[in-house]
Every structure is written in C-alpha cells, then in structure tokens.
Amino acid sequence: MISTAATAATARERMLLAKDAARQIGLLSDERKRDALLAIAGAIESAAPAVVAANAEDLERGRATGLSAGLLDRLRLDEPRVAALAAAVRDVAALPDPVGRVLDERVLPSGVRLQKVSVPFGVIGSIYEARPNVTVDIAALAVRSGNAVVLRGGTAAERSNAALITAMRDALAEQGIDPEAIQTVDDFGREGARELMNARGIVDVLVPRGSAQLIETVVTESSVPVIETGAGVVHIVLDESAPLEWARDIVVNAKVQRPSVCNAVETVLVVRGAASRLVDPVVAALQDAGVTVHGDEAVAALAPGVVPATDADWQTEYMSLDLAMRVVDDLDEALAHIRRYSTHHTESIITQDDANAERFLAEVDSAVVMANASTRFTDGGEFGFGAEVGISTQKLHARGPMGLPELTSTKWLARGSGQVRS
Amino acid sequence: MISTAATAATARERMLLAKDAARQIGLLSDERKRDALLAIAGAIESAAPAVVAANAEDLERGRATGLSAGLLDRLRLDEPRVAALAAAVRDVAALPDPVGRVLDERVLPSGVRLQKVSVPFGVIGSIYEARPNVTVDIAALAVRSGNAVVLRGGTAAERSNAALITAMRDALAEQGIDPEAIQTVDDFGREGARELMNARGIVDVLVPRGSAQLIETVVTESSVPVIETGAGVVHIVLDESAPLEWARDIVVNAKVQRPSVCNAVETVLVVRGAASRLVDPVVAALQDAGVTVHGDEAVAALAPGVVPATDADWQTEYMSLDLAMRVVDDLDEALAHIRRYSTHHTESIITQDDANAERFLAEVDSAVVMANASTRFTDGGEFGFGAEVGISTQKLHARGPMGLPELTSTKWLARGSGQVRS
C-alpha cells in the first residue's frame, strides 16, 4: 500500500498543493471520478481495522476529557459504521456528474457563440466538528464534483480523520490522481482553521458544518466566501381552518421523528380561533410521544402539564423532545412572530384556507415554506437530490437543501472567428 | 412635492427601515414595479435643476480637495447627463420581472408538490465611489427586482447622491410604496460603511463597485455576503497558428476601444513559434493607435519602441493606453502565466488549432474564456442581459456579467395535503 499521508510543512503549503491538484481533478471525465470513488470506498473498507483502532484512541481521549455521551456516540466508528461510510461513497459514485452541464447558450449578433457551463469550484474547504463521517461525506462529494477539498475536522476526531484521509489519498494515488486533492489541516489545530478561513485566492468556498456557534465564527471571521448551513428554529402555524388530524399528525411527526435535526419543528403557533379546538388534543398527542410542551398562558389554560414558556423558548433550537407553543391572535401575528424568531430554514402552515396558504407561502422569508406538510421533508434525500451537502439558510448561491450541483460554479465559454466589438 | 429625505437617527435604524420596506416591495406585481420606475425616471427629470445645483457643490469641494480631472469628470452631472440617468431607469423598467420564475418543479413520492421560485434577496447594500450614476443605476435595478437598497456612495458625491435619492424616494411615496426601500447611509461617513458591512441579518448581500482597493476592503471586512465585482488583468494569447489579421484586430480592439474598463486587455502572450511573424506588426498597430507597449526582451528584440517590462507590469490593470507583451515558449507557459497573474475575469486565445482552443477553454479558470474573440465582449449588454449589475469575478452565486436575475435568490414552496415523513 502506498502511504500518502499529508505531510507538507505548513497549512498554507497544504492548501496550495490542493489548489494545484484541483486543476487535474477538475478536468477528469465522469468515469474517472466514479472509478476514483469506488477505489475510495474499497480503500475505506480495507482500512477498517486501522480506522477502528485510530478511533479507539480518539474515544479514549474523549472520555478522558469528558466528552458527553452524545458526542462520544457521534465520534464512534465500529466495523459496521465504517462499512456504512464506504457504502455512502458508492452512493455518491452513482450520482450523475454535475460538471459540464450547459446551462445557457446564445449566439451574439456578431456570431460569437456563448455557452454557460457548470465547472467545479476548485478547492472546497470544510470546517466541522467531531464527526468522522463528515470527513468521508464531504471528500466524496468534492471528488464527485471535480473539486479538491481541504478538511478541518476538529481535534476530538483527529486520529480517526487522519486514518480515513490516508486511506482516501492512497486510493486517489492508485488511480493516478494527485492525492493532494484530499487535504487536511487538522494537525495544525486552531491555526489550521484560521489559515483556512483566510485562504482567499486559494480556497474558493468554505462550508462549515456543526453547531450554530461554529457557523457564526466561520461566517464572521472568514474572508473566503462561506455557504452558511443551518440552525433551524422551525415553525408550524395552525390556522383557524386547520384539520385536527393534519395538525396533530404533522406536528408530532415534525417534532418526534428525529428531534435532533435542523428540520424538526421547535415552535407551534396556534391562531386564537382554533385554539380551543386544537391545543388540547395536539398537546396531548405530543405528551403521549414523550414531548415536553413549553406554552404561553393561553396554551397552559387549555391543556394540562404545560411548562411555562419564556422569551428564551421562542429563540431556542431545542434539538430534543421539547416544543414551544403560543396562541396568536391571527395570521398577521403568526407572521410577525416568525419574522422575529425564524432562522429562515423551514416553516409550514396547516390550513384549509387557500388564500391563507398562498399568503403564507409568499410572505414567509425562509429557504423552504410549506402548506400542509411536515417540516421534516426539508432534506436533500427527500427532495430527490441523491445526496445532501447541507441545508443552506443563506440567500447567496444556494438556498435550502444543497445537492451536488450546488458544489459547482459556472464559466462562460465564447467561441468566435475573429470578432471585435464595434 | 412630498419630501421624504432619509432622516432616521442612526445608520442601523435606516437599514431596519429598509428591511421593513423590503417586505412590501418584494410582493409588488410586475406592473407596479414598472410604474414605480417610470415615476422615478420622471422625478429625476423634474429634479434636474436641484441635482445639477447639488452636483455643483460637490464639484467645487472636489476641486478644492484636489480630485483628479478624471474623477471630477465622473462626478459631473449636467442636464444632459441627468436626462441620460432617467433614460437608463426607463430601460430598466422595460426589462422582464426576474421575480416569480419557476426554476424547478417536482412532485415527491408522498404527493407533496415542490416548486423552486425566484424571489428578491430582500435588502441589497452597495458601497461605491464618487459616481452619482451608480446611485440611480443600483436603485433602479433593486426596485425592478423587488429589493430594497441601502447605498453608501462616498463623500465626494454626497450632495448629488442626496438630491437623486430624495427624488427617487419621493417618487416611491407618490406611488404608494414605502420610500424607505431606497435608503442611504452616506451622511454617516465611514461609520455608515462599517455598519453596512456588519449588518448581517438585515442586509442580505453587498455589492461593492469601484477600485480594487475598495473591493478588497469590503470583501475582507464584511460579514454580510459579498458579490465581488472586478478587477480585470485580462490576457490574450497569440497561439502559433494565430492569423495575423485576427491577432492584430482583436488585440487593438481589446486595448484601444475603451482602455479604462475592466474587460480591456492588459497582457498579450505570444507563443514563441509565432513571435517573429506576429510581434512586429501587432506592436506597430498598437503603437499607431497610441498604445505604449511594455515588452520583455524577446518582444523588444522584434519590434522598435518597446518599453522594458518588469514583473510589476504582469500584475497591472493599466486602465490606460498601455499594454504588456511577453513571448512564451508554448501554450503550457502561457497557461502558467495566466494562472499566476490573472484576476479570473476574461482571457482569450487567438488560434486556428481547435485542440489548443478547446484546451484553453477547458483549463483557464476565469469567468469568461474565449477563443478568437475580443475580450471587450464580456459585458451584460453584449451578452443580451439588457442591464448589467457588474461583472462577478467570484465563483459563488454569480460569475461573469450579472443581469437582473442575479439580484434574486430562490425559495422552495411545498404544497401538501397533510403529508408526514415516514
């Protein structure tokens, strides 16, 4: 086995090597990129014992430094989890090549032929937290879209990430592809992250993944353009005409199916005219499913066992079996609440009034706005993208679930025969 | 006449007023936005005497503080120039509405109907230098695309901008549109610019226009997402097979037609095999047109009157009748030179070798890559966009000439009938 562990002396040198490698990987055919990913999947499987051993060191250090049980579980890689990583890489290999699509075509009056085509960004940077699966995930998506990648995965998963990255780099080298296309700055600690955020001109786009605080830091400090992915303080409005069954089923699904993800609902706003009809049965169904409901006084007056909500509740992404509920006078007040507290991820209204549904869809300023559906549908897989790079909550470049095409930029090609501008 | 001069006490308050106004303007019909622009054009014409008087004060202060003749000319507004501003607004009014386009449509297996539609950004910020025409330009493009705008136009044009902005705000108010949709932070000086760059959550995107230094400052300091528009160190490569006539005509056109703009060529790279055939006549044609050619030794040996080029020449966007020329060994060396010095705006190759043309188109990493055409074609008007917001040299969101659609974001709308995720 080749050993191509990343060894350049500085973080900046590593990034320059990645930039160089980006030229080669950016021009590879669909087939060669697919073959590279299949080789990466195989290499990850072969490296499973080494990866699990490296991960054991990370876990031991994590336990010693007091990582929570939840974080330790996210960090853990056993043989089945490594196999799942390899399988995910094969899924990415099967996706269509996002590079080389002709997005616009026009012939200028002078006869110059113009084409707007999709091209790789070049170098994608990613800063994320102790989740070794993100290492493989982002690297695979980058290779599929012809990009080089520079990873900064956090100290807690350092050994696991190093083992995975070495396996992936070896696979590239065996395929005749410059292994510097998969790069890490993990071993430079915080300095590596800082260099990555300031690598304007080398790194083309930075995708932070992790806590709201991590994302805030990257957005604020980076001079490299950032795609913000996001925190979700997600709202469901129960309109006056909301059918009880839809209201109950959608709220419970949106909260309970997977409470720790960004598309789970956090706040339910009930229009006053529907409160006496809906609050009690919806709260009861949530409580039956193990949810603690934090309600305002009007909610508490209509349902037993409600914990009093404070202003902090409206701002909280619980990521747990907690939910905030408030009675609002009307749709106007619901929209004002959403304007104030939404993180612009996903909001849904449950209603049988088409005018109210269309008003909600038009006026709510979020990446995904729904009528009569669970907010859990906001997901690249559910949207049919095949893979999800993250869910963008910003308005530039990409908004909502991002698939492989969102990892490309564009370029205009102009073919002439001596034309000059008059 | 109403007077709606911007008066809120702080730059932040002004921006919050713009954010509020964005909700209204973002929902206006095509017709109402068009009417608003026609009213703005009329108001600018009516305000011409006041605008010219305000401009005279700016010019006087500019002369006193020693502004260059070129900058004074850019700053000057006489009655015909004001009429041209109004005419430009009418041109923008005639463009199709970029909002509400359905960009993607799919039905999920559960029956939820998804649509991806174009929506306004919300609030666009712009930081630019002493050119009052940009004030009207950006405001008109913002209104056409349903966005509010916050302008920071520089102290040198402060009075002119204030007069134009008041006229535009009055016109909005008369149309029943919240005038806070056109906002300025000019009277807060540098502090206004700083607040604008840090108005994350209020301002959705920032478009700097002006010198490379201005753009660099905004990109580095802003926490609001920036669309970088750009400096152009633009290259033309004369390949071994380049026909003399194409080479000469295209190089002269690309340099001479309008030397002060970003798509003008700055550096010509001549492949060695063509040097003895092309350098002398191309240099002569440039010199005939008044161009000073800065050449390396090989160029100087082949043509008379060439000024010696230094490394600084390869990095310079002259914006004048100067041009740098270098002989390179082959296409590889030309591509390496471009990688090192290009600002990723526009590059063109002159060749009759299709393989070399296609290699150049594939490998050069610039917003617009050409074969056998003048770099002056990189322009929103030439591309048929009807208006140009600027030429993006970044890879995120927009690349190359930006038209009105580039001033929109997207939103996913989901319409269901009670669906939950299984």
From TrEMBL, chains A, B:
The organism's taxonomic lineage, starting at the top: Bacteria, Bacillati, Actinomycetota, Actinomycetes, Micrococcales
HAMAP family per UniProt: ProA
Protein family per UniProt: Belongs to the gamma-glutamyl phosphate reductase family.
* Keyword presence, NADP: yes
Entry's PANTHER family?
A: DELTA-1-PYRROLINE-5-CARBOXYLATE SYNTHASE, GLUTAMATE SEMIALDEHYDE DEHYDROGENASE
Alphabetically list the UniProt keywords.
Amino-acid biosynthesis, Cytoplasm, NADP, Oxidoreductase, Proline biosynthesis
Q: Where in the cell is it found?
A: Cytoplasm
| Purpose of the protein | Catalyzes the NADPH-dependent reduction of L-glutamate 5-phosphate into L-glutamate 5-semialdehyde and phosphate. The product spontaneously undergoes cyclization to form 1-pyrroline-5-carboxylate.
Task: Name the gene for this chain.
Answer: proA
- Check the record and name the InterPro entries matching this protein: Ald_DH/histidinol_DH, Ald_DH_C, Ald_DH_N, Aldehyde_DH_dom, G-glutamylP_reductase_CS, Glu-5-SA_DH, GPR_dom
Q: How is this protein named in the record? A: Gamma-glutamyl phosphate reductase
**What is the originating organism of this protein?**
Microbacterium rhizosphaerae
